[in-house]
């Protein structure tokens, strides 16, 4: 069984169209050419699927694979980014990308949250397994800080947040979100380890303050800025998982080409978190140490999170349309 003549004719047309576009020195590609190339690219993907699943023709499969990659690179070729393009990416493109890669974001979040629950339970049940992540010395320091609180006085955790705790968590989360992406090159294993270890740490810290009776204080200091930072970690982790999965399962494409293609999306995900991390830093600097009630801070944290979800949802819808 072989591909029909109509398919081969499309391949020839695609090759000629690509050659014509690529040889247009110092000229913009006509919108009609790009539109036709997009149509041919869709057909190429369909042909490639047939050649992979039901038709054994390595020569044709290699030809179509290379054509599809050339077409993709031409359609999504790099161009100088204007301020308008940058704003549109952050308002619409990034949320749309998060939506398209939501399965990886969910997987990243589940790894972190599950590890956090395990860390919480280990501390709450006095399990020594948590010593592998949070040293006994650090556990004792955090426990002493929590127990030193006094009613109707500035909570020592607030002072710690101003000069140590929240700043440490903020810097750590920024580092984690970047490392979670970068270590995806190790088949995603590095990303998984980072998500789990940091989830364990946060869960352990939450348990220490909860057991001391100061859960509300802890979360009121962490969530206003930490909620945004955690979303960034989940997205950074998703970027790492995308890279790792592209190495494990390149599909019908060459591994190197597929990793490069998927890596572009992964890098965009990480870049898109930069404004969120900047906003989280401002919140951490001005809101976290403010002497306002924990309930008010928790309400603000909820408002920030709802605004974040509204932006991601509306942006994704605009991108889809």
Précis, in short:
The chain has about 325 residues and is mainly alpha-helical. Helix content is about 80%, strand content about 0%.
Care to describe what's here?
This protein is mainly alpha-helical and 321 residues long. Helices cover 79% and strands 0% of the residues. It has helices at 5-22, 31-53, 58-75, 83-100, 102-124, 136-147, 156-163, 165-182, 189-211, 215-248, 255-272, 274-286, 294-320.
Structural class determined from secondary elements: mainly alpha
Largest beta sheet, briefly? none
The average pLDDT value, as a whole number, equals 81
End-to-end separation: 39 Å
User: SSE order in H/E notation?
Assistant: HHHHHHHHHHHHH
How would you sum up the global shape? Answer: elongated
| The number of domains | 2
Characteristic key phrases:
321 residues; mainly alpha; 2 domains; 0% strand
Task: Chart the SSEs and their pairings.
Layout: H1 5-22, H2 31-53, H3 58-75, H4 83-100, H5 102-124, H6 136-147, H7 156-163, H8 165-182, H9 189-211, H10 215-248, H11 255-272, H12 274-286, H13 294-320
């Amino acid at each position: 069984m072989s591909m029909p003549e109509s398919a081969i004719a499309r391949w020839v047309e695609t090759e000629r169209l690509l050659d014509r576009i690529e040889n247009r020195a110092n000229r913009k590609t006509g919108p009609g050419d790009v539109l036709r190339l997009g149509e041919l690219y869709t057909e190429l993907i369909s042909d490639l699927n047939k050649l992979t699943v039901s038709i054994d023709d390595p020569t044709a499969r290699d030809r179509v694979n290379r054509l599809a990659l050339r077409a993709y690179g031409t359609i999504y070729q790099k161009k100088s980014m204007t301020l308008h393009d940058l704003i549109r990416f952050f308002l619409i493109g990034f949320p749309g990308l998060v939506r398209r890669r939501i399965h990886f974001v969910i997987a990243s979040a589940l790894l972190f949250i599950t590890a956090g629950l395990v860390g919480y339970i280990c501390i709450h049940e006095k399990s020594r397994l948590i010593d592998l992540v949070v040293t006994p010395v650090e556990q004792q320091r955090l426990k002493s800080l929590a127990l030193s609180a006094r009613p109707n006085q500035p909570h020592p955790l607030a002072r710690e947040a101003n000069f140590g705790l929240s700043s440490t968590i903020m810097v750590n989360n920024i580092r984690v979100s970047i490392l979670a992406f970068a270590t995806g090159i190790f088949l995603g294993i590095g990303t998984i380890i980072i998500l789990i270890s940091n989830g364990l740490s946060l869960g352990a810290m939450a348990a220490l303050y909860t057991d001391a009776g100061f859960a509300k204080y802890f979360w009121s200091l962490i969530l206003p800025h930490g909620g945004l930072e955690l979303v960034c970690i989940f997205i950074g982790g998703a970027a790492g998982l995308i890279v790792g999965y592209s190495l494990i399962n390149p599909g019908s494409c060459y591994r190197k080409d597929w990793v490069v293609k998927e890596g572009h999306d992964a890098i965009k995900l990480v870049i898109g978190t930069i404004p969120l991390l900047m906003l989280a830093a401002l919140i951490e600097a001005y809101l976290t140490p403010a002497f306002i009630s924990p309930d008010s801070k928790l309400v603000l944290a909820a408002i920030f999170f709802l605004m974040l979800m509204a932006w991601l949802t509306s942006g994704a819808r605009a991108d889809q349309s």
